[in-house]
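Supplementary Data S3. Sequence and structure tokens for construct A.
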Amino acid sequence: MRDTMFLRRLTLFFPMAIFLTLVGFFFYRLVLIEKGNTPNMIPSVMINRPVPVFALPSLISGKPLVASAALKGKVTLIDVFASWCVPCRVEHPLLASIKEAGIALVGINYKDRPEDALLWLEKLGDPYDAIASDRDGRVAIDFGVYGVPESYLIDKQGVIRFKQTGPLTPEDIRDRLLPLAKELNK
């Protein structure tokens, strides 16, 4: 009898303990975010390093390969995206403002079926100057991609100067990306 009473109390206590642990974790995470520790600002070992050497087929048949060598000479934003990625859909309309600012825009379609990506671009629009297909994700691994979307700002010498993990916001573009691109274009 005593054992069943103990087990009953334990089964009531256990879910409450899990709930309180999760509440504590979320509160701790909010405190870290308030102090500036944000997950979309994951540091990259690739910052200030040359773009990994790559040559990928174009997502659009009949177009030339998309290669790292073509990135030199102009400030370029590489946007790693996929049609199955919900945050990519949120970010996508903002990419036009980057292109309007005079930044070359290269898309790398990550682990996606080409027909799905093409349909997605047909529905949402195609802001890219070139779009590569990284079906197996090898090039994304070389860049150090954590997940999609991810964006990399490349200077005229082909060096990575900025990385954004997660979708770009209007504030990210206005306050960080465009000023840095302007500086790199000097």
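Construct B, processed identically:
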Amino acid sequence: MIGALSLSACGSRGEKKNADGGGSNSGSTTVVIGVDAPLTGDLSALGLGIRNSVDLAVKKANETNEVPGVKFEIKALDDTGKPAPGQQNATQLVGDPKVLGVVGPLNSSVAQSMQQIFDDASLVQVSPANTGVALSQGEKWASGEKKRPFTSYFRTATTDAVQGPFAAQFLYTDAKKTKVFLIDDQKTYGAGLAGTFKGEFTKLGGTLAGEEHVNPDDRDFSAIVTKVRSSGAEAVYYGGEYPAAGPLSLQLKEAGVNIPLMGGDGIQSGDFIKLNPKSQGDYATAVGLPVETLDTAKKYIADYKTAGYKDAYETYGGYSYDSAWAIIEGVKNAVKDNSGKVPSGPAGRKAVRDAVQKVTFDGVTGKVSFDEFGDTTNKQLTVYTVKDGKWAVEKSGTFKG
């Protein structure tokens, strides 16, 4: 199995292990890595994969005594995919002096609610999934005025500045779709993704058959289905996530609108196919190359399966592991620079934050390092399509503007 659904297959059996970290390290100093993700609710399939992958990284770091004298633990908090709980979680994590780094969140809108809190405390945050460009390059990035708003914010996922246009190039050039109906869920991620798709698609010569906005909690799309059906669209591009994208695509197909729906990494989940048994031929982009094809990911996949997590590692598993490892590397380098001791207090968090900026290592998803904005230097993406009930690789590459 390839793509997000194959990610599901790797971790779908066995009893769930303790998700609070641990291992054989008997070091005297405990360092906590926080996790913020949707652990319950519609997006929990992705969130649980994030949590479990961080837990796995912590276990491996302890087993190998990666940082002598340090035992890592995780503190996983549920944001349910919403900004308000995420903000509360950020405050809670900042308030725990043992927390020296945080992995998450999943949603760009949640990240917006957390960034200032983490930055004020110099607490490093590494997201495995955020793709909203403004998070790292500022609100005026589209006009060419790029300015990093928060030095504590990093991500291992590439941004919608390349994901949306990459999808547009595929639909127009490879799939030969020149007339697309554009829909988004009005959230930071979905609207931003749709916007960057639109810019590139129209630049290429494509036309929009229509534009609509939905609520991410909507499940009845009959009105929009009617509009799409009469628009003459050859495809639908949806900016949003799988809980709404699955039903939308299904209702289109059931109404006889047999055109592909395409979205970003927010729909590239096995749950999209579960929600939509008629998803054959739909497309999704995802950050990076397919984890299953990478030699660097073989041990991670095997270790995840051995650990027995009952939840899939899903689309962001490898990126979550690498995010956690970036923090672990940051702690290791900060300890080295502090005579072998974990630096404490605000200065300690700042030391780890500054060390993460400089990390470079071979991770699960490939080379891990960050540019001057805190963005990943890995700009590769993959287009997947649903074939026979599975996500299959259609094309991988790097966006060329």
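Residues 1-27 have pLDDT under 50 and may be disordered. The chain has two domains: 4-158+292-370, 161-287+381-398.
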